[in-house]
Design goal:
421 residues; 35 strands; mainly beta; globular; 4-stranded antiparallel β-sheet; 1 helix; 3% helix
Length: 421
């Protein structure tokens, strides 16, 4: 369960809960960094008079309590019909069943609207205000730069040159900066998007490729390793508010091209590769610790994704023509689908379907998770993506668009898809 609160001006907070409407309190965490949320493992109690209290570690008189009481109870039996796992079988479970049933055929029809010119495009991101698209031309045969597009008419606003081969770029929460990995040299750079000036460079070691933000776009998770050895890599954590590295996790292999943060910001997932042996890592964000791994041999360079409730992770295996659905709680494979040459499998925000990027064709395929079938193929022309695992969509649900970078050194760019959700 996620506890969310953002008391201003407080560095560390104490967390408590009450099972008696505030008459008595039990400690959850004596001192936790005030980053706006805490992943709470619920106690094995039964009470409908529960509250949570968050207070200043240095001044207990400064506190905030949950507005309403809530219920915690210990589930003694597992029921097949308990779809929402609340230990009851009732109309809420029936509603979930009906919702899933009605989802069949509820996959939007996509149309290719246009193709933004950005050769060697290794990533795409939208500014949080929705005004601009940032395309990283990190594999361009000419100047390596970020190309900024206006989302209204797709005109080019500016080009920001970046030395050292940028790879993945993500825009800060205030729309003012672009954080980019630079794979030659192992840097992360902070760029002022108005004047293209580099205002901060953080040296992380060897090579850096993938970046991923938490939901607040504060903590940046960076994959780093020395590709000359490919034996040891790291996941580095950068606090963008202080521009410092605040955590690091050693990995037995080279981090993959896609890093996934779960919706509650509690865990980070990524694949590693070491001499033909691939492993899926589950890393707890609060302590930067590896909590579980799952060997998945032979998957190679792939693009993974997670559904909106954080319960299922999708891992493609293009060599075996398979896609695995992984239960994130148990880190076990719970379903397998036969899909040809799926290098990237990206679940839609509402969870009804996925976009598939493959290495046998530049076409984009739409996979219906209910019928377990490909329901649409979108042709993007003759633009062959030689690194399809690097293609990663940005979903603009508000305006019914998806932006997908397709990587080709001489051509490539950003495919803009229209859809009605």
């Amino acid at each position: 369960m996620c506890i969310r609160d953002s008391p201003e001006g407080i560095n560390n907070v104490s967390l408590e809960y009450s099972d008696a409407n505030g008459l008595r309190w039990s400690l959850i965490e004596e001192s936790s960094t005030n980053d706006g949320q805490y992943d709470w493992l619920l106690p094995e109690i039964t009470s409908n008079q529960c509250l949570v209290r968050v207070s200043d570690v240095n001044d207990p008189n400064v506190y905030d309590t949950s507005d309403d009481m809530f219920t915690i109870f210990k589930c003694m039996h597992a029921f097949a019909g308990d779809l929402n796992k609340d230990c009851f079988v009732n109309f809420e479970d029936f509603a979930l069943f009906a919702q899933d049933w009605l989802k069949e055929g509820d996959v939007p029809t996509y149309e290719l609207e246009t193709f933004l010119d950005a050769s060697g495009c290794t990533s795409v991101d939208m500014s949080p205000d929705g005004d601009k698209i940032y395309a990283c031309m990190g594999k361009s045969g000419t100047t390596r730069q970020y190309r900024v597009f206006d989302t209204n008419d797709y005109s080019i606003i500016r080009n920001c040159e970046v030395t050292g081969c940028p790879w993945r770029g993500l825009v800060s929460s205030d729309n003012a900066y672009l954080w980019t990995s630079v794979y030659y040299g192992g840097y992360v750079k902070k760029i002022d998007v108005e004047n293209c000036n580099i205002v901060k460079t953080i040296d992380l070691g060897s090579w850096t490729f993938e970046l991923a933000f938490d939901s607040q776009r504060r903590y940046l998770y960076v994959g780093e390793n020395d590709p000359g050895t490919g034996v040891i890599g790291t996941l580095q954590v950068v606090d963008t508010s202080t521009e410092t590295v605040v955590g690091s996790v050693t990995l037995n292999g080279e981090p993959g091209k896609v890093i996934v943060v779960d919706p509650c910001d509690s865990f980070v997932y990524l694949m590693t590769r070491n001499s033909g042996s691939e492993t899926l890592y589950k890393i707890e964000t609060s302590g930067c610790t590896v909590v579980d791994t799952l060997p998945i041999f032979g998957v190679g360079e792939i693009g993974i994704s997670i559904n909106s409730d954080g319960k299922t992770l999708y891992v493609p295996d293009p060599d075996a023509n398979l896609v695995y659905a992984v239960d994130t709680d148990t880190m076990t494979i719970i379903d397998t689908w036969t899909i040809d040459s799926a290098c990237g499998f990206y679940i839609s925000p509402e969870g009804t379907h996925a976009l598939i990027i493959g290495d046998s064709s530049p076409d984009i395929r739409i996979f219906d998770l209910l019928s377990k079938q490909i329901v649409q193929t979108i042709s993007v022309g003759a633009l062959v993506s030689y690194s399809p695992e690097c293609s990663k969509p940005y979903w603009d649900i508000t305006n019914g668009k998806v932006y997908i970078n397709l990587l080709s050194a001489s051509e490539g760019g950003v495919a803009v898809l229209n859809a009605e959700w």
